[in-house]
Automatic annotation (TrEMBL):
SUPFAM superfamilies: GroES-like (SSF50129), NAD(P)-binding Rossmann-fold domains (SSF51735). The keyword Oxidoreductase applies. Its cofactor is Zn(2+). It comes from Albidovulum litorale. The lineage of its organism: Bacteria, Pseudomonadati, Pseudomonadota, Alphaproteobacteria, Rhodobacterales. Belongs to the zinc-containing alcohol dehydrogenase family. Residues 4-342 form the Enoyl reductase (ER) domain. This is Zinc-dependent alcohol dehydrogenase family protein.
Length: 347
């Protein structure tokens, strides 16, 4: 099969013909319909993710059609269109039994611990515990974008911070996660301030429902948010994983505010100095979140199917597999609005 292989960090991916994946006994092999190109893939590309060893096939935001079914799989058949969370849980441990599959101690993560979906096919183990059927009318490109950014934002807003209608949400970073958080928060009925340093991204956010925007390159973002919201945001989402925006996200909150760390801290940002005086005096709550349990997919898909949220503004570029290297390198600087999704695996 054709795949884009990472053979050297910060180097173009090698387009190669590699062996088709073996079908796990408890899993399936999918023909990949679409795969998003995510900032987390960039962390792999730069060598910042300790789970990645070379050579490696990236790609963790995928959907596909079942081509092979393992002997122990009971829920899926050849021809089913499915999506999977990027964290594949075992479904049997105490964490999974409690509904916290994203903390499964034996989790499998295609694109990081296992070969990913920058390829024509991908093996997905633990299929009965993790796969969800795709609505027939859903565009594969949109479904792929759900796999990390939308699901993580949804779980962060509803499963962690419990965002309520009428509350103010401040989103730091208007990339894929940030834009997802905006669209989902508006569906919930919250008011949203988007923070970035790229005017095109802020304009894009305004065009898709942001109540206010802040260019952090021209002001102290947390002070601007406090003024806009009349005392501070109820909830803040940090979607970049860097120290400066994490500090600002905490400082922008009103008392009893909740902050969700969605951006993945890597490199020098794994260690941060945070304003714990603000946490203490404001009685703030700080949540980390990563992915979304598979059991929460149906509620999100139902929201989309019912027309309560339009996520199509997420998709900015439909690209070929050969474009993956360019898209990854673009994360080194400010990226344009929207996300890129690989939909052509022949080029």
């Amino acid at each position: 099969m054709r795949a884009a292989v990472l053979t050297k960090f910060r180097a173009p991916l090698e387009l190669a013909s590699i062996a088709d994946p073996d079908c796990p006994e408890d899993g399936v092999v999918l023909k990949v319909l679409a795969c998003g190109v995510c900032r987390s893939d960039w962390h792999s590309w730069t060598g910042s993710d300790p789970d990645v060893s070379l050579p490696h096939v990236p790609g963790h935001e995928y959907c596909g059609v079942v081509e092979e079914v393992g002997a122990r799989v009971t829920r899926w058949r050849r021809g089913d269109r499915v999506i999977a969370p990027f964290i594949l849980a075992c479904g049997q441990c105490p964490s999974c039994a409690a509904g916290n599959q994203t903390t499964c101690p034996t989790q499998v993560i295609p694109g990081f611990t296992h070969p990913g979906a920058f390829a024509e096919r991908i093996a997905v183990p633990r299929a009965d515990h993790n796969l969800t059927a795709l609505p027939e009318a859903m565009d594969p490109a949109l479904a792929a974008a759900l796999g990390c950014r939308v699901t993580t934002a949804w779980h962060g807003l509803t499963g962690r911070a419990a965002l309520q209608p009428g509350e103010w949400l401040a989103v730091f970073g208007s990339g894929g996660v940030g834009l997802s958080a905006l669209l989902l928060a508006k569906a919930i009925g919250a008011r949203v301030v988007m923070v970035d340093v790229v005017e095109d991204k802020l304009a894009h956010a305004s065009a898709h429902g942001a109540d206010a925007t802040v260019n952090a390159s021209t002001c102290d973002a947390h002070e601007a948010i406090r003024e806009i919201t009349g005392g501070g945001a109820h909830v803040a989402v940090e979607a970049l994983g860097i120290a400066e925006t994490t500090v600002s996200a905490l400082k922008c909150l009103r008392k009893l505010g909740r902050m969700v760390q969605i951006g993945m801290p890597a490199g020098k940002h794994t260690q941060m100095t945070l304003p714990m005086d603000a946490v203490y005096s404001g009685q703030l709550a700080l949540y980390g979140t990563r992915g979304m349990p598979a059991w929460r997919y149906p509620s999100l898909l139902s929201l989309i199917e019912a027309g309560q949220v339009d996520l199509t503004p997420l998709i900015a570029r439909r690209v070929a597999l050969s474009d993956a290297s360019t898209e990854l390198a673009a994360f080194d600087g400010p990226t344009p609005p929207g996300v890129a999704v690989i939909t052509d695996f022949a080029q």
